[in-house]
Design a protein that fits this description.
Blueprint: H1 2-11, E1 15-17, E2 30-34, E3 37-46, H2 49-54, H3 57-70, E4 78-82, E5 84-89, E6 92-97, H4 105-122, E7 128-133, E8 138-143, E9 152-155, H5 168-177, E10 186-193, H6 211-221, E11 227-236, E12 243-252, H7 259-271, H8 280-288, E13 300-303, E14 307-311, H9 312-319, H10 333-336, H11 345-356, E15 358-366, E16 376-384
Parallel strand pairs: 3-10, 4-9, 10-11
Antiparallel strand pairs: 1-2, 2-3, 4-8, 5-6, 7-8, 11-12, 13-14, 14-16, 15-16
């Protein structure tokens, strides 16, 4: 996605070619020319997915939730707290959660956690508690059904970079150095944020190495690279006045002469980017899902009792029998139906019109712009129809 956005933005600024073969037979993503400016660049995205794989907190939480269902416990009510340790290496220190390896998580839950929960359920010992504390695994689990459907948890941040050349950002940059080794002119790497703490400002940990420190180390080890451009999305403002904006940060190797020209180019390129729809962490989560997002699910509008409006995709799913209005647009329909909830206002309005003998007289699709992922359906009810109205 980031590559597509970059190529689109650059195409509006000068002459752009994609995957042109260079002397090493490699094919970098970008060959761009504008007047006397000529640059070759590769585009990549960086995330903390590798760190997440090695610290599978969220997977453990999901497996415990699955086990709770089999034990006939209500959804939610889980509090999972995991301790961590610092591993000292030759290059520095890193934080690791005290969890079983990902490959053994399911066995750990089935053979260690579930038997303890089952015994406590048999003794009616609520809330349920499991505490494990040894050199390899250290965690506390509390399950309180009265807190359903809410869950909570805590763990030490393991994704804060603490070693300049051992972190996801440096690794992504290093992988691109060979791709650009024999390229002519200005060379650089353009990095898109796929949910990486090394690109964010959300950590105040004094032990962390900064983004600049990481990139400075990269320039020191790979002096043939002239620039690094970091792309992300930031939330500007607070509350109802907040909005999302594209953000670009450029870094140049010491002694590089064309920084001003590149900054001007990058500013122009970003101005042509599409408006961001969500933050990088949410975008990364949505990208891993098998299906589409919810669109306007759960959203609605009404005008008295004569008009109701709901999302086109939700309307179609209702028409296909996959959900009802009473599901309130929930993504997991089966789970939502097990929880107490209030009657949907649109369903109540539709029911009142039907009982009064008023049927829809028009159904109109309201189109939205390209930044929206769904359209609307507007249903207007007519006058009382004697064919379906109660006898008076």
């Amino acid at each position: 996605m980031w590559e597509l956005v970059v190529l689109y933005g650059l195409s509006k600024c000068g002459h752009l070619q994609n995957e042109v073969t260079i002397a090493s037979r490699r094919r970098p993503d970008v060959l761009f020319e504008q007047d006397s400016l000529r640059l070759t660049a590769d585009v990549t995205a960086v995330s903390d997915e590798g760190l997440d794989d090695n610290n599978p907190y969220h997977e453990l939480s999901d497996l415990i939730e699955d086990a709770k269902k089999k034990l006939k416990l209500p959804i939610g009510g889980l509090d999972l707290r995991v301790r961590a340790k610092d591993e000292i290496t030759k290059r520095g220190t890193r934080t690791v959660l005290l969890l079983p390896p990902r490959a053994t998580l399911r066995t750990f839950v089935d053979e260690v956690i579930v038997p303890q929960l089952r015994d406590q359920i048999a003794d009616d010992a609520f809330p349920l508690r499991v505490a494990i504390d040894d050199e390899d695994v250290s965690l506390d689990i509390t399950i309180d059904p009265t807190r359903s459907p809410n869950s909570s948890g805590a763990f030490v941040a393991y994704d804060v970079p603490r070693i300049k050349d051992r972190n996801p950002l440096f690794n992504a940059l290093k992988a691109k150095a060979a791709q650009l080794r024999t390229a002519d002119g200005i060379t650089g790497v353009i990095v898109g944020d796929g949910d990486c703490v090394a690109l964010s400002v959300r950590s105040a940990d004094w032990r962390r190495v900064s983004t600049k420190q990481i990139i400075d180390e990269y320039f020191r080890q790979f002096s043939s690279i002239d620039f690094v451009l970091l792309l992300s999305v930031r939330e500007i403002g607070h509350g109802c006045a907040s909005y999302l904006a594209n953000e670009a940060s450029s870094f140049f190797r010491p002694g590089f002469h064309a920084g001003t020209e590149l900054d001007t180019l990058f500013e122009s390129m970003v101005s042509h980017f599409p408006k961001p729809a969500m933050m990088p962490n949410n975008g990364a989560l949505r990208a891993r899902e098998d299906d589409y997002g919810l669109g306007h699910h759960g959203g609605y509008g009404m005008s008295g009792s004569s008009m109701v409006r709901l999302g086109l995709r939700e309307f179609t799913e209702i028409f296909a029998g996959l959900r009802s209005l009473d599901d309130n647009g929930a993504k997991n329909v089966e789970a939502a139906r097990k929880l107490p909830h209030e009657t949907n206002l649109i369903q109540g309005t539709v029911m009142r019109n039907l009982m009064d003998g008023r049927l829809p007289e028009s159904i109109e699709v309201i189109k939205t712009d390209e930044d929206e992922s769904d359209d609307w359906v507007e249903i207007r009810f007519g006058k009382v129809d004697p064919a379906v109205a109660p006898l008076r």
